[in-house]
Design goal:
The structure holds two protein chains of two kinds. By secondary structure, chain A is an all-alpha fold. Helix content of chain A is about 45%, strand content about 0%. Chain A has twelve helices and no strands. In chain B, helix 3 (about 25-35) packs across helix 13. The longest helix of chain B has 18 residues, at about 60-75. The termini of chain B are far apart. Classes of the chains: A mainly alpha, B alpha/beta. At the A-B interface, helix 4, helix 7, helix 8, helix 9 and helix 10 of A face helix 2, helix 3, helix 4 and helix 10 of B. The structure holds iron/sulfur cluster (SF4) (2 copies).
Chain lengths: ~200, ~300
């Protein structure tokens, strides 16, 4: 029999404390207030950063993170390089450390395997948050060169590998149909999306 | 004839993506062979281009636009999509799911697609070949097609992450913590499947371009578990996983000073062997780590 040493009255039922709540609708206020007082606020804190991230595709659940570390525990990248830590990145976002996050090499190290996202007890879409952070970094002019190179290939040819006559000959020899070499309308879609400007 | 029957009578649009037709043709060769023999009709759509996955990191909406472009092309041809690469499957499946559940997004992407003469209504279903083999061709037909049982062989299955996740986008087809479709398919050929620690771990391919050593380290961990347990081969279903475990296996052995020598076969190659195809018909000469011992065990010299 368990004894409640702390309070004489009956403890609230587990389900009362952890009653599932709907995801808070987006407001201009953070669901969790920041711990930093207004007058002590370091200059580099961006109080709206978490909200900006939360408004991106897959970002809304971010505000529910309770820092359990399940994401980091199952992350294949963290297993090899302990400097990579998705929980810490989520915390930094919630604390408004915008520049540190967007300039960090770590946001480019997520393998996008979705392990964290499937396991997060709070339904945070961690892999999608990482993607949103990369998108935000790109909007600030920080583009990882490897991704930039791939995007340029896709813009110019429609694919990340160029198909030359040699490749098509090889395909035909193997009994496979030839491929079209260039797919022009991708350029139009890149223009409409204003992706060219962002690639610099 | 009901609508779904008439739909099924249509061929699948075979979606190859960028990597397979240029660099990993053995996957394509074997897939076409087994699909054809099992009665799956495939159609090629010449205008198919990148699935959008590589640019999602730069601009998630642009990636969805490229995915929607392919979906619209398949819809125009009246076909559902059958994909071979799990990253493409993931990208197209996620986009199809969102475009079906979010009409505002569909309208907005359609405004851009109109500029290239396309429109997407939301009717295309996207599935990976392996899912279609399990779900639609099914056990009976596959077992009936097996003429060279692979008894005595032990395969280590590697499920690509995007074959399973996000589970919601894939209609909760598999429990990502306990997938079984690839294991089942291996078992239907008569072979055994290896259950091993880290079976569900990602191949690391997603970070190969940003941090090679890190990516190869992730792959090393899995090769180590599989080699220790003396599997005859890894079997997998994604070109990127293949690049990590097969193409880069020598490099991993050199960097980390650990020998593995584990052959890596695409599942359609495994199934093709069981269906009586010869190794050259399945592009087996293109596998980097040659499965010589494995072939000898099933009587192929
Ligand atoms: S698993 Fe979810 S709740 Fe836990 S730390 Fe990671 S993001 Fe936060
Ligand atoms: S999606 Fe990214 S952060 Fe999450 S477990 Fe995979 S590699 Fe780690």
């Amino acid at each position: 029999m368990f004894v409640n040493f702390i309070s004489k009255s009956a403890p609230p039922a587990f389900s009362q404390i952890f009653a599932p709540k709907a995801i808070p609708e987006m407001t201009t206020q953070l669901a969790t207030p920041l711990i930093i007082e207004e007058n002590q606020e370091p200059e580099h804190i961006d109080r709206d950063f978490a909200l900006k991230v939360a408004q991106r595709a897959g970002g809304r659940q971010l505000l529910r993170c309770f820092a359990c570390g399940t994401c980091t525990a199952g992350c294949p990248v963290a297993e090899i390089d302990e400097r990579y830590n998705p929980r810490r990145i989520i915390r930094m976002v919630l604390l408004g450390l915008k520049n540190e996050v967007l300039r960090s090499e770590f946001i480019w190290l997520c393998a996008g395997c979705y392990t964290c996202q499937e396991r997060c007890p709070q339904g945070v879409r961690v892999a999608e948050v990482m993607r949103a952070l990369r998108n935000l970094a790109v909007e600030e002019g920080i583009v990882h060169p490897a991704f930039k190179a791939q995007a340029e290939l896709i813009r110019n040819m429609g694919r990340i590998y160029e198909i030359e006559d040699f490749d098509n000959k090889k395909r035909v020899r193997a009994g496979l149909p030839e491929l079209r070499k260039n797919i022009e309308d991708i350029k139009t879609l890149f223009e409409r999306q204003k992706l060219n400007e962002r690639l610099g | 004839m009901s609508a779904s029957d008439s739909r099924r009578a249509r061929p699948y649009a075979l979606y190859l993506g960028c990597t397979i037709p240029a660099r990993v043709q053995h996957f394509e060769i074997a897939s076409r062979k087994v699909a054809e023999r099992l009665g799956l009709q495939l159609a090629d759509v010449a205008e198919f281009a990148c699935c959008g996955y590589p640019i999602a990191s730069l601009d998630a909406r642009a990636a969805k636009l490229l995915a929607a472009r392919n979906l619209a092309l398949a819809e125009r041809a009246g076909c559902d999509i059958l994909a071979l690469c799990t990253a493409c499957t993931g990208s197209l499946t996620e986009a199809a799911h969102e475009l079906q559940t979010d009409p505002a997004l569909r309208d907005s992407l359609n405004a851009d697609l109109a500029a290239v003469g396309l429109r997407y209504e939301g009717s295309v279903r996207v599935r990976h070949l392996v899912r279609v083999l399990w779900e639609e061709v099914g056990r009976e037909k596959i077992q009936a097609a097996v003429v060279r049982r692979l008894d005595g062989l032990l395969f280590a299955p590697h499920y690509g992450c995007h074959y399973l996740k996000p589970a919601e986008a894939h209609g909760d087809f598999e429990d990502p913590e306990a997938p079984h479709t690839l294991d089942d398919l291996i078992a239907w050929t008569g072979a055994r499947t290896l259950d091993y620690p880290g079976k569900l771990r990602c191949c690391g391919g997603g970070v190969l371009a940003t941090d090679e050593k890190l990516a190869l380290g992730i792959s090393r961990n899995k090769l180590r578990e599989i080699a220790r347990r003396r599997a005859d081969a890894v079997t997998l279903i994604c070109p990127f996983c293949n690049i990590m475990y097969d193409t880069n296996q020598k490099k991993i052995e050199t960097i980390f000073g650990e020998p593995f020598g584990v052959p890596v076969l695409f599942f359609p190659q495994v199934l093709g062997l069981a269906m009586g195809f010869e190794p050259r018909e399945l592009g087996l000469s293109m596998n980097r780590v040659q499965p010589k011992a494995l072939l000898e065990k099933i009587g192929i010299k």
